[in-house]
Structures are given as structure tokens and as C-alpha cells.
Amino acid sequence: MIHSLFLINCSGDIFLEKHWKSVVSQSVCDYFFEAQEKAVDVENVPPVISTPHHYLISIYRDKIFFVSVIQTEVPPLFVIEFLHRVADTFQDYFGECSETAIKDNVVIVYELLEEMLDNGFPLATESNILKELIKPPTILRSVVNSITGSSNVGETLPTGQLSNIPWRRAGVKYTNNEAYFDVIEEIDAIIDKSGSTVFAEIQGVIDSCIKLSGMPDLSLSFMNPRLLDDVSFHPCIRFKRWESERVLSFIPPDGNFRLISYRVSSQNLVAIPVYVKHMISFKENSSSGRFDVTIGPKQNMGKTVEGVVMTVHMPKAVLNMNLTASQGSYTFDPVTKVLTWDVGKITPQKLPNLKGIVNLQSGAPKPEENPSLNIQFKIQQLAISGLKVNRLDMYGEKYKPFKGVKYLTKAGKFQVRT
Amino acid sequence: MLNLISAVAAAGGAAAVGPPETHCKTGTKMTDSKYFTTTKKGEIFELKAELNSDKKEKKKEAVKKVIASMTVGKDVSALFPDVVNCMQTDNLELKKLVYLYLMNYAKSQPDMAIMAVNTFVKDCEDPNPLIRALAVRTMGCIRVDKITEYLCEPLRKCLKDEDPYVRKTAAVCVAKLHDINAQLVEDQGFLDTLKDLISDSNPMVVANAVAALSEIAESHPSSNLLDLNPQSINKLLTALNECTEWGQIFILDCLANYMPKDDREAQSICERVTPRLSHANSAVVLSAVKVLMKFMEMLSKDLDYYGTLLKKLAPPLVTLLSAEPELQYVALRNINLIVQKRPEILKHEMKVFFVKYNDPIYVKLEKLDIMIRLASQANIAQVLAELKEYATEVDVDFVRKAVRAIGRCAIKVEQSAERCVSTLLDLIQTKVNYVVQEAIVVIKDIFRKYPNKYESVIATLCENLDSLDEPEARAAMIWIVGEYAERIDNADELLESFLEGFHDESTQVQLQLLTAIVKLFLKKPTETQELVQQVLSLATQDSDNPDLRDRGYIYWRLLSTDPVAAKEVVLAEKPLISEETDLIEPTLLDELICYIGTLASVYHKPPSAFVEGSRGVVHKSLPPRTGSSESAESPDAAPAGVQPSEQPAVIPTQGDLLGDLLNLDLGPPVSGPPIAASSVQMGAVDLLGGGLDSLMGGTGFAAPSTVVPANLGAPLGSGLGDLFDLTGGVGTLSGSYVAPKSVWLPAMKAKGLEISGTFSRQVGSISMDLLLTNKALQVMSDFAIQFNRNSFGLAPAAPLQVHTPLAPNQSVEISLPLNTVGSVMKMDPLNNLQVAVKNNIDVFYFSTLYPLHILFVEDGKMERQMFLATWKDIPNENEAQFQIKECPLSADAVSNKLQGSNIFTIAKRNVEGQDMLYQSLKLTNGIWVLAELRIQPGNSSFTDLELSLKCRAPEVSQHIYQAYETILKN
């Protein structure tokens, strides 16, 4: 099981370590640093590294490496999932998962890590339970604590831990009972030079914010549940009910959580909401090139495409870019060679265009590779797959909750090859 | 600051609390830094006073200060008694802090730590289950031997606590204790209690018990801790639905080790595991995939359910690819295995493996690999378009692999070869140096696969000769020039240009250049004589490399003695290269499938090959398919004395294989008259030596002449014994029971060679009767056989003589005489025999079990007096009792039947209507076995025989019993 955990920042300092069994020397991280050096880019450090006596399994989140040390044959996915859960918990507790936040709350961090693993076995990882055991820091509470001397450690046994619904705490009470669902879909796509779709799929999630008193039993139904054939569920969902009736039936955790995530991949179902016209060329034997990109709306179901941002990794030989944007603003970082064009909203009447001259290093050969265009955008009030919530019913409690559903479509990894 | 932090972390150990930035935090923002204010002298004294204060608040603040000091590496162990005093408190936080202190200092102050024991014992009986659980949890973390003993009682209580929260914490504590003192845990019977917890009513307790047992089992591979049966499986499946995600992973991993008894049970488990595929936690999903992939093996392919399951497996695997990159990587490594085992699952999902330019490099490379595995005629156009796109990316490693992938596609999908070649030519035109080099390397392979088809591109390749600077590319180009020398007008000039810097080239290039020039000479002898002489002298006289020198001399000899033969050798037709060179070997793949989701699946190596210490070489294997057409291939009748489950197995893993090879005794087996045989033996050894040698990297092959004498000493005695056996056993000409032949090495595992066989003993000589069948399309010849060391020193007494080459679809029956003078090594099971068979194609390995009765010698009849004395002499612990069921034979019939196999009846008595037979037998290595056989004559309803065996080496009893059963029942 998980033996130890080291947190390492980008400059290679180990700023926190925690051992659940015996102490493993920090020097084990040298193997990690070696791999990091080899990988050049921080993103490219391999997640599983073997050393003579241990295995290092790491994740990279928010500019911090979470490096865990294991000694026996353990499922690596188990470790990786757990590490992400640790990072999520820090995020949840401190509002951000950063080196400063962790250092400022080091005692809570230790208390959390102590509760999350026992001898390397996961103990309590549900945020609902953890928050009962260890109260999250607030400025008010720490002031109060320091005056009254009360602690941020819970006094009682977290009730949820033993029930059949470990994700929900007992005795929840709200004056306003609310249930919100956000249907968020991301389009992952690769568009080739000619504008045809090489690959496209929708990654959808339903994120929920449930603030309901007591033990509500909810069922959520869809207009078109047949769209959902590849779904991952939160443990609270009754699988049998979904199998037989295609209804999501569950007793929800308290607060924010991800209800389901799903994937829609049949090519014909995935609408591509924008198109890109591009002309990027470099002249042979001259140190310049031309750049001309226009973005326009396509299959957007009558909604506005907004928050459009285009990023391009230009070839290494590019020295500078001299462009004019018909709309929005652009920046070019000559060090990383990244061109960013913040377009904003697309109005069909006047399509946004960015064009101009690319300056190359003199004497450098004409770049071989063509840059890919990475596009981000947002469409409010639309789930591009067409998924629609039909109704939400509540059983088990008497009050009438306030219900809301929001839809949002975003670009995920949306790439246009040139 | 940073130095300080690392110092803290190093010193703090398990309970380290690192100091946040002390300099910038003041009262306005309440962070933990306030506990790190600098201290004056006499601080310990101050703290002591505060710890003993009456005010609770002051006490708690003091403990916090102590903990903070501890984590910055200050020695506050002097406060031990005072801190331990604070342990008895109702305040949970204070208690937790004291526990932190204890975990840190207990090890350095074992004597004082005992003071804390009392509180632990008390806390374990606290009415609050949270406190009980906390106490039992902390106890396990105090790694002090002296204390552990005191903790057994509280732990025992907690394991049976009424509160499941306490029970599940206690279960983990057993694993902790086992880590500190394994013997203690066993002696105290905690393992049994833990096993009982598997049937606990609370699913979380079940999950933790499984987790703890799995961890303990890993350090005790043979302990059989997780002995699963249908009842416990049912309990696990029930708990699976209700426990936390982590618990589900433990349970699924445990389920994967279970072997269902039939396909129906396998299906029902699969049905109950399938819902886990929709879990949000990817580790749960992958563990479920492992269970399904393993149990699917048992399902018949014609079953509707089989098809449904295949369909259900695809979406969750694809979903894993939309997770974080680290998860993707592990998922892809596993998918790589899955597509090799069952390509049908993901054959329609090619597109999800298309690479995005901002994927991390480790994800890109894996995706590429899987794309090639999935490439087929149906999707090749798409794949090629993608690969061409990748070949213009920025990342050099990735581009190289993409170019190589194009070549692999050409070799894999014949219809696409032409398109691949033209794509490669396009890429060569880009003149990007590393792209050109990779392209040339793969084109060489394409030439090998499709000879005389694409040679028109050679001209283009030659244009790029100068830009090649990597050895592999240069070697490939030289090979091409040499191979097609007759079509390249200036081949001699090209090769000559390489020759200039001969000594600066790498060995690979040098060897290739030598061969290419010799080829050129054989093709155009007139104009290249000078060149070939030059290269031969460079290779033989000026080189330090033995490989190069040897090859040079061989060519030189060949060319000078017999140019015609040289032509036949050097320009021989080359065998076609295989479709996919990088597939994982099937037996290894099957084993790896059992390890889906583990580190083994990431490294594509069995755990025994890399897990530290490789404590248990427990090989997992896929369950045999039942009820399907494939079972027809497996033998119905297992060899005598072999349980049906132990079918002949090809020796499994690579790791193992190497070990076995090194163990193989290469010394020649010595037969009756050793001198006469030795010349023949040498031949056999040579044959094998050639094959094995290359596998072993040229080590371990001792010259036969040195080995013979070493083996001579010992066997002589028993060789004489054998002679006596001959005379002694004249009366029993009929020989012992011979089991029907069964398949030992199936054709599919040995490139078309099928071997079935059995063992027999006749007139004092043992023989292995083999039936070799050639199911391949090519003629097989040059057979040889060798045994690994085994328990009774069985070894071939003569070489395996197959006089004529074996044509396709032909079989030959051979009786190979064996002796028992080979080297001895105890095997498990005792009668296991590992065999290596070589032919002109390859060397194959299999293992089989021989029936022990072939080792019963003919002078195994003991004197009556001797028998009585020996029976008394052998201690009673060595007596083993067995039952031979349903054997309706009379005492005389039994006696006669056994006599045929050299089990001799010494006396017969009738006691209370039962016949008692007293028997003896002797094994080839001189071990005597005495037997008492109880028969109830004339009782048709009770036909079981009772057998008691006494022997000084009790481990053989089980096998003797099997021999009895085999002889009596046939």
C-alpha cells in the first residue's frame, strides 16, 4: 500500500513529507528528479518510476508534484486516484491547492493525511466525512479557536462512516432547500487541414450542488436517456434502477459533487460549433511567412459562441509576429512561441480575423511542422449532445425544494490542424 | 528557509509538521506558524510546568508547542512522562496530539513507552467507538517490540468489538502488527480472526479484512490465507455493492485470484461484477476489467453472454482515456495488453487513440503503439493519414516512432504496403534528417517482408546516403546495397565510401559492411576482388572485436575453399520476417492479463521479474476454457497419477525460463556402459548446446569431456544395482502399468511440433514413449532432448533418435530409454519433470509429471523380519493414511496387480474378516516404502481400500498413493 508521500514544487524542493509506515529517506526522490530532468517538460515526467527498492507514482497538479512511494505490488491507478483525491481535498479545504496554502495550514494538512490513510489503506476520503472529523479553516474559526481554545477536530464519530450511505452526513438542515444541476459538455475534436472532422466526441458531466435537509431521495429523469450509453456514476446512484428504467435515483451527498460523467462519441451526434479558415505559410529562402486565420460559427443551434480563445504553438524558428486582429487582442510570447488570440464573442455578421506577417530567424530553414490551432469557446444554455433533463422528483422529505438546471457547452481538447 | 523545512521533514518522520513561513505571519492571520516562535533557554522547563498545569487550555497549548518543537527537530523527549500524562483526557484533539508524540518518541524511548500502554488498554474500552478505534490505530503505529506484546489483548477485543468502525480499524491493525512481528500475529491466532471477518455483516469490515489479508499474503505467498470458496465469494460479492470505492478495489483484486469451478459460476460472477464498470473511480473500473477478462476465458465463445460482455468492456476502457494524463498512461499500458489478448473489444474504437498534440509524450507513444495493434485493412487508410500527420510533429522521439509505425503497418497489413512505401518516400523527400534515417530502417524490413516488389525505390534511398549518421540507419542502408548489389550500378563505389572510416563505425555497421561486401563479391566477382580483400583484412587483422574477426575468418575460409558453397551460404534465401515482432509471448500475455491494473501490467513483466525480493513466485494463470470447442485439443486422459487439473504445461514465464535453462544439466546423461555411449552422447550434447547456447548467451556450456567423469562416480553403484534388478525382475516380464499417451506439448505452443507421451517400466528399464507429430508446414529434423534436474535424477540414457526428417503431418513414435543417474534437484511437485526439446526450428520447453511407479525397482521385496523391524523403526509421524475408493478387487487380485509394478506383498493376514496385505517397494534412489493395505473381501457395498504408508521420506507418500490408485484402477 501507499508508504509515503512527498510534495515537491516546481523548483524541486520537497516541502512536505508524510509517512504512513516506517520513514523512507528523502533521497528516494533523487530518482524522481532524475526522471524530471530527462523529461525536460514538467508535464512529461512519467507517472510510474521504478527505483531499486521502491516505486514512485506521481501526479502533477497545480504546479505541485505529489510523489508517493510504494514498496509492494499495488494497483497504480488506485494510487493515482488517491493522490488526485488528496489534491481535491486540499482544494476543497483551502480554496486552492498551492504550496503557500499547504504550508499555511500544515497542521490541518497532517490531520487530513492522517485521516485519509491508515497504514497505507484509504480510511476516509469523502469530503462530507472529513469535514465532520476536521473542520475546514476559516478566518473566523481560527480567531474563535485561539480565543476560546476550542479545536478544529470533531468530537464525535462521523455518522456517515458506518451507514450504508457513507457519502451523506446525518442531521443536515437548511432554511432554503435547493438542488442545482449543471450539465456541462466538452467537445474534444481533431479537425484536419481541409476542415473535416478526424475525431470528435463529447465528454459530459452533471455537477450538482444539493443543499437539502434530512434524507432526501431524488430521482432525475431525462428526455432522451438513450444518448447516455457510456456513463460513470457517483456511488450514490442506484445502478439497477438505471439499468431498468434509465432514471438516476439516489440519496445525494451534501454539497457539491459530480453526479455522473458520460461520453457521447458516435460521430454523427457530435456537432462542431465553429469552423476555422486558415492560411499559414512560410516562404522558402526568406525569413518571413504569412498568417491569416478566420473563425466562424457552424452548427451552433442558434446560440452565441463566446469566450473564444485561440492558442497556437508556433515553430521554434519564429522570431516575432506582426498581426492585426479585426476583433479582440492577441499576444505572442517570443520565448515559448505561443500565440494567444482572445477573440471573445463571435458575431456572424462580422467574422473575427487575425492576419499579418510572421518573422523567422534569418538563415533558419523553413519550418517543417505546421502548428496546430487550439480553440476554446463556450456556449451557454446548450448541451451540444442534445441531452435534456426531464424532471426531478424528491421523496422522503416533506418540504418543497427549489430546483434548477443549467446547460453549458465548452471546447475540451479542440484542435485544428493546419 | 527551505533547508530548514527539509530538515524538519527529515527529522519529523511520521508525525512531521513542517513550519510555514515564520517570518511573515503575525497575529492578523491565524496560521499554524504561531507554534514556531523562537524559544529561550529553559524552554523545556517552561513547557514542563505548562504540561502539568491544571488548566486544560494551557495543557493543550503546551502539547501543541511540544509537537511543533518536535517537528523542527528539537529533542523534547525529556517531556515524555509529562506528555503521556496528558493522554488521559476527554479532549479528542489533545489525545490525537499526544498520540502523534508517542508515535515519534516511542521508538527512541521504549522503556518509557510502556507507560503509555495502560492508557491504550483503557482507551480500547472507552464507550466512544471513535476513541477505541483511534487507540487501536495508534497502537499499531508504535513500532516497539516490547509494546506489541501488551497490545495483543486490546487488539483481540477490538477485532470483536460491537462497533464495525472499530472492527475495520482493528483489521488494518493486524496487518500493521504483522509487519512488525509476523510470528506474534500467527501465534496469537489473529490471522484466523481476520479470516472470520471476511464473513462480517458490515461491508467495510469485509473490505478491510480482505485488504489486510492480501497485504499479509503478499509476504507469505504459500500461506493460502485467502482461501476462497463459493460461499466466501458470495459474501465478497455482496459486500462489493455496499463498500467504499477503495474497498471495492481490494475485493475485486481478491476475486480475480479465485478460480471458478465451471463456466456457469464464472458467468454469474461476471454478471455481478459488470456494474462496477460504470464506477467513477478508474481503479475500480480497471480491477473489474481484470476480473472479467480473466473469467471470460472460461466462457464459451458461442454464448450470447460472451458477446454482450465483449460489448460492455469497450466503453469503460475508452472512458479511462478522458481522465487525467497519469491515469491515461496506466490505462493505455493495460489496453495494450487487452488488445493483444482480445482485439475484438476495441477494434471499432481506433479513433480514440488518435494523438492530440498536447498529450504528454508518454501518452503519445502508448497511443501510437495501440494504433498499430488495432490497424487492419478496414481502417488502414485513416491510420496512415494520422501517422503521416504525426511525422511532421515537433517531438523527435514521437516522430521517429510514427515513421517506424508506418513500416509496421506495411508489414502487418499487406494490402497497405504499397501505400505505406509511398508515404515513406514522401517523408524521405522532406529531407528531415531523423525522418529519413527512420524511414530507411523500416524500408529495409519492408524489403524483407515483400522481396522483389518495391526495389524501384532504391534509387531514392541512395540519394540520401550521405545524410545518414546513425548506426542503425547506416547498417540498414548497407544491407540494402549489399542485398541488391546487382541492381545498383555503383554498389561498389557506395560500399567503398563506407569502408574509408571502417574503424570509426559501430560494430553493427562494421558487421553489416563486411557481409554486404562479401555479397557484392559473390555477385560481381570480377570487379570487386580488391574491395573484398580490403574488408577481410580490416576485419580480421585490424579489429579487436571477436565477433567481427570470427565472421571475417569464416567468410575468408568459405571464399577460399569453396566459392560455390559460399554462395549458397551467404546468398541463401532468407526466411520471411514475422508479421508482428513485438507481440508479447502468449504465455506471458496470459499471465499479464491476470495482473491487469497492477504494476506488472505497466511494466509488461510478471511481478516475479521485478518486485523486490520476488517473495512468492506464484504464477497466476488464466482459467482453462470449459465447454468450448477449444477444449477438444486438450488431452482427455491425463498421464497416470496426475490429477486432471495439472495438465502438461509449457514452462511459463520468461523469468522462469531463464532460471530453468540455467538449471538444465548440460552434462551428458550416462547410460549403462558409459564409455561406449559417450561418443553418441557427445552428439546429442552438441545438438542441444547449439540451441541452448545462444539462449544463454554462451555461458554454462561445459565441455562434455569434463562433465563425464564428474557424473561417473555416483551412478556406478546404482548402475550395478540396475544390473541386479534385471536378474531379479526376470519373472515379471509383463512390466508395469503404462498410462495412455497424453499431449505434453501442444502444437500451438511449439511452432507446430506436437509431443505426446507416457512413461513405462519394463524389465528394469524405464522409458519415455513419445509420439512426435509435425503439424507445421515445414520439415522438422535435428531432434534432441534434454531434461532439467529433477527429484529422482531421471535423464535420457540415449540421444533422441529420429532417423528421417519429419515431414508435415507425419508422426513418429520413439521410445527413449531413461536412467536415474542424472543430477538431482528436488522439484515441486516431486514428480515434476521439465523437458527441453530441440529441432531445426527452435528449442521448446514443457513440463510433465511422471508416475512414481516407473521408479519402483525389481528388488523391492523386503525380508519379513526386516519389514517388521523397519516398520517399528520408522516414527509414527511418518505414517500416512489414504483411501482408495471403489476398488472391488480381492486381496489376491490386488496383490498380483501390484506385483506387476514391483510392489511386493510380504505377508497377508486376515483380521476380523478383513484382509491385510503387508507390502514393500523400493525406489531407484534406494528409498524403501512400507505399506499396509486393508481390504474387505466379499463386501460389494464397501469397496474402498485403506492404505497406510510408512517411509523415511514422507513427502513421497502422496505420490506412492497415486501410483497405487493408478495401478489398481487400470
UniProtKB/TrEMBL annotation, chain A:
The keyword Aminoacyl-tRNA synthetase does not apply. Keywords: Cytoplasmic vesicle, Golgi apparatus, Membrane, Protein transport, Transport. One of its GO terms (cellular component) is cytoplasmic vesicle membrane. InterPro entries: Adaptor_comp_med_subunit (IPR050431), AP2_Mu_C_sf (IPR036168), AP_mu_sigma_su (IPR022775), Clathrin_mu (IPR001392), Clathrin_mu_CS (IPR018240), Longin-like_dom_sf (IPR011012), MHD (IPR028565). Gene3D superfamilies: 3.30.450.60, Mu homology domain, subdomain B (2.60.40.1170). It is found in: Cytoplasmic vesicle membrane; Golgi apparatus. It comes from the Eukaryota. It is a peripheral membrane protein. Residues 176-417 form the MHD domain. GO terms for biological process: intracellular protein transport; vesicle-mediated transport. SUPFAM superfamilies: Second domain of Mu2 adaptin subunit (ap50) of ap2 adaptor, SNARE-like. Belongs to the adaptor complexes medium subunit family. PANTHER family: AP COMPLEX SUBUNIT MU (PTHR10529). This is MHD domain-containing protein. The lineage of its organism: Eukaryota, Metazoa, Chordata, Craniata, Vertebrata.
UniProtKB/TrEMBL annotation, chain B:
SMART domains: Alpha_adaptinC2, ARM, B2-adapt-app_C. Residues 628-640 have a biased composition (Low complexity). Residues 615-649 are annotated as: Disordered. Its main location: membrane. InterPro entries: AP_beta, ARM-like, ARM-type_fold, Armadillo, B-adaptin_app_sub_C, Clathrin/coatomer_adapt-like_N, Clathrin_a/b/g-adaptin_app_Ig, Clathrin_app_Ig-like_sf. It comes from the Eukaryota. GO terms for biological process: intracellular protein transport; vesicle-mediated transport. Residues 1-16 form the signal peptide. GO terms for cellular component: clathrin adaptor complex; cytoplasmic vesicle; endomembrane system. Keywords: Acetylation, Membrane, Protein transport, Signal, Transport. It is found in: Endomembrane system. SUPFAM superfamilies: ARM repeat, Clathrin adaptor appendage domain, Subdomain of clathrin and coatomer appendage domain. It is a peripheral membrane protein. Pfam families: Adaptin_N, Alpha_adaptinC2, B2-adapt-app_C. Residues 737-847 form the Clathrin adaptor alpha/beta/gamma-adaptin appendage Ig-like subdomain domain. Residues 856-969 form the Beta-adaptin appendage C-terminal subdomain domain. The keyword Signal applies. Belongs to the adaptor complexes large subunit family. This is AP-1 complex subunit beta-1 isoform B. It comes from Alligator mississippiensis. The lineage of its organism: Eukaryota, Metazoa, Chordata, Craniata, Vertebrata.
